[in-house]
Design a protein that fits this description.
The chain is α+β, with helices and mostly antiparallel strands. The chain folds into three domains: 29-99, no CATH class; 120-194, no CATH class; 197-302, no CATH class. Helices cover 38% and strands 20% of the residues. It has twelve helices and 13 strands. It has helices spanning 12-27, 32-35, 37-49, 74-80, 85-99, 120-123, 136-139, 169-175, 179-194, 227-237, 262-275, 297-301, and strands at residues 55-56, 63-66, 69-72, 127-133, 145-147, 152-159, 163-166, 200-203, 209-214, 242-248, 251-255, 285-288, 291-294. Strands 1, 2, 3, 4, 5, 6 and 7 form a seven-stranded antiparallel β-sheet that branches. Strand 6 and strand 7 (163-166) form a beta hairpin. The longest helix is centred in the N-terminal third of the chain and has 16 residues, at 12-27. The two termini are 20 Å apart.
């Protein structure tokens, strides 16, 4: 991936955080986890267990999405290392069935059975705020969501060690709570985690500063929605307002509106968005005391090529 020559555009740590997933498949050599062979093996087992479930493969060979559940395959890969044949297949099947206790019914199960969802009293501690592209609704129309911009939606996820599951309307209905309660708890939990997330800041030439925060936990972009985190970014930049972007799931970017490098920064956002993986949007947002909003037509004109 090629980045523009903006002084201090991205620190080495931020580049690694934003691109680790994309680079993994290039650097792993014969590692079956990174070259896709293990994911293909897992998908074959999933198609037997859940023949009617939609399976989505993204840019990261360490993940597979089944319905609204995204499974992380790293731990599973370590668990079955050294196994072969039927013992390996049984271990995969056991793990995948346990990983989705409220997911699609396994082959042979009753298709008429109502799904059983975890009670809200235990699920709420794992609630997280999330940002998803609007296209996700084409795959799963029942995702609980609210509009953020023309291309992005606010969603909610249940986070676990080896997966996260997007909250759907049937799940939400089973909890019997108000949407404001769902949103408040998801934001509170996400803010509590975000206080430990580093923010890298660099100058952008003669005037202006640039900040980025990149992690591989799947929630970097979602931190755009967290006032506590964004206030910390604003404080680090030393400005009352921030122009911000979330080109991929793995990075949130912000800079001072007076930056002399604002057009190259916007160009970098577009490149990150096009190259992915986990593309979100190349839209630009403003964050200040009034909150978060997409840039208006006049403001966007300053960033046109």
């Amino acid at each position: 991936m090629v980045f523009p020559s903006v002084p201090g555009f991205l620190s080495r740590r931020a580049v690694i955080g934003a691109c680790a997933v994309a680079l993994s498949t290039r650097t792993a050599g014969a590692d079956a986890l990174h070259d896709g062979r293990f994911r293909d093996e897992v998908v074959a087992v999933l198609r037997v267990l859940y023949p009617g479930a939609p399976i989505t493969l993204g840019g990261d060979t360490r993940e597979v999405t089944v319905g609204t559940s995204t499974l992380y395959l790293g731990n599973l890969y370590a668990m079955v290392d050294g196994l072969a044949g039927e013992p390996r297949r049984r271990r995969l099947a056991t793990y995948l069935t346990e990983a989705m206790p409220s997911g699609p019914s396994p082959a042979g199960g009753s298709s008429d059975a109502s799904p059983t969802f975890e009670p809200f009293t235990t699920a709420q501690r794992r609630l997280r705020i999330q940002i998803i592209p609007g296209d996700y609704l084409k795959q799963e129309a029942s995702i609980v969501h609210a509009p953020l911009s023309q291309r992005l939606l606010i969603a909610y996820a249940l986070d676990e060690a080896n997966r996260y599951q997007v909250v759907t309307e049937p799940m939400f209905a089973s909890w019997g709570v108000d949407r404001t309660v769902l949103d408040r708890i998801a934001r509170r939990n996400s803010e509590a985690e975000a206080v430990r997330v580093p923010i890298e800041v660099s100058p952008t030439g003669e005037r202006g500063r640039f900040a980025s925060s990149a992690t591989e936990d799947g929630y970097s972009a979602a931190r755009l929605l967290l006032p506590g985190f964004m206030d910390r970014m604003r404080e680090r930049l030393g400005t009352a307002a921030i122009v911000a972007a979330v080109p991929t799931r793995e990075i949130v970017i912000g800079w001072t509106p007076d930056s002399v490098s604002r057009q190259p920064l916007a160009s970098a956002v577009r490149k990150l968005f096009r190259n992915g993986p986990y593309a979100r949007s190349d839209e630009l947002f403003r964050y200040d005391d009034a909150g978060l909003r997409p840039l208006d037509v006049r403001e966007r004109a300053e960033y046109e090529p």
